[in-house]
Amino acid sequence: MKKEERIGQRKLGRGRTGCDSHRGAASHGARNPADGEERYALPMPSFSYEASPWQIREDLPAAYRAEWQGLAQPGSWWTGAERVAIAEEVRRAQGCPLCVERKQALSPFSVDGEHAHAEASVLSDVAIDTVHRLVTDASRLSRTWVEKLAAQGVSDGHYVELLGVVVVVISIDSFHQGLGLPLEPLPMPEAGEPTGHRPAGLEHETAWVPMIQAGKAQGEDADLFSGGPQTANVIRALSLVPDAVRSLKNVSAAQYVPTWAVGDPSYSEGRALERGQIELVAGRVSALNECFY
Fold first, then answer.
1. Measuring CA to CA, how many Å separate 252 from each of 46, 60, 87, 164, 255?
2. What pLDDT is attached to residue 104?
3. What stretches of 13-158 adopt beta strand conformation (E)?
4. Strand, helix or coil at 7?
5. Which residues pair with 203 in a beta bridge?
6. Which of 47, 49, 59, 189 has an alpha carbon within 20 to 30 A of 176's alpha carbon?
């Protein structure tokens, strides 16, 4: 098995580093976890597609199970309960009346109101608003908006990890919706504190958030990139939170192709579509989603 094919396996048991200032939820304005933790006391997922009318490759549910397990665990900046709450807000955002009104407005920042969110959420109002904006109107966000989040209790690390959760949940939920399958119940969050892990080798010039320089991933994060001097920015984008990159690569390897095969126009191993057909579908989906690329 190639190293790039193993990146979906989260690094468990990592020591808590650099997180003395992050005691529970207080540092980023979250509400008391006890207020809503029981909302997510759901069974661990199975991602069983035995009743599906479609034949589904086994690598897909395997990748999804790994991500649901990781979703329930404390991350770098959010607790397990907060990460699962972020996932719930991803689902609620798609039917949020305030988000619909904002989407229709000339400016997404001209409409105020309260989101349709989970009762007694462990997340702060700012975190909930961030999730909803990313899900429903990401193409109109700005560097200024991202930079202002830190003053409201959502640091750059919190933001990138939240974005990583949003990406994974949307990807997996969209798979189910596209096949007319019910959404997988959210997992029960696991106890524990965030690690506060901030990787070495960060640069601040390219994007709105710090990213690891191409070819500079090191130490426990040396597995993130292929090892070459060039790494696509779409892969580097979440590298402030290395586990978010691992999750992105894990899901992408199943739903698209492994990152090491992106540059190979003939790669379509195990796929029903040829690579050219895959790219046609991917390009159309990206256009419909107003993808920057």
1. 20, 10, 18, 13, 5
2. 95
3. none
4. coil
5. 211
6. 189
Structure tokens at 133: 């904006």
| pLDDT of 15 | 33
Q: What is the pLDDT of residue 21?
A: 30
Q: What was the pLDDT predicted at 8? A: 34
Reported pTM: 0.84
Residue 273 and residue 100: Cα distance in Å, rounded?
Answer: 35
Q: Sign of dihedral through CA atoms 236, 243, 139, 292?
A: positive
Burial class of 208 by CB neighbour count within 10 A (0 to 12, 13 to 18, 19+) = middle
CB 44 within 8 A of CB 68: yes
CB within 8 Å of 180: residues ≥ 6 apart: none
Residue indicated by tokens 């700005």: 142
Residues with Cβ within 8 Å of residue 7, at least 6 apart in sequence: 223, 224, 245, 246, 249, 250, 253
Numbers of helices and strands, H then E, in the chain: 9, 2
Q: Rounded to 5 degrees, what angle do the CA atoms 26, 204, 202 make?
A: 80
Vertex 90, ends 88 and 96: CA angle to 5°? 100
**Residue 227: what pLDDT?**
56
- The per-residue pLDDT for 243 is 98
pLDDT along the chain (293 residues), means of 10: 35 33 36 41 70 93 97 98 98 96 94 89 96 95 96 98 98 96 95 97 94 90 77 90 97 94 91 95 89 74
In the prediction, which pLDDT does 119 show? 82
Q: Count CB atoms within 10 A of the CB of residue 2.
A: 9
Which residue type sits at 69? Q
Q: Is 196 exposed, middle or buried (0-12, 13-18, 19+ CB in 10 A)?
A: middle
Contacts of 50 (CB under 8 A, 6+ apart): none
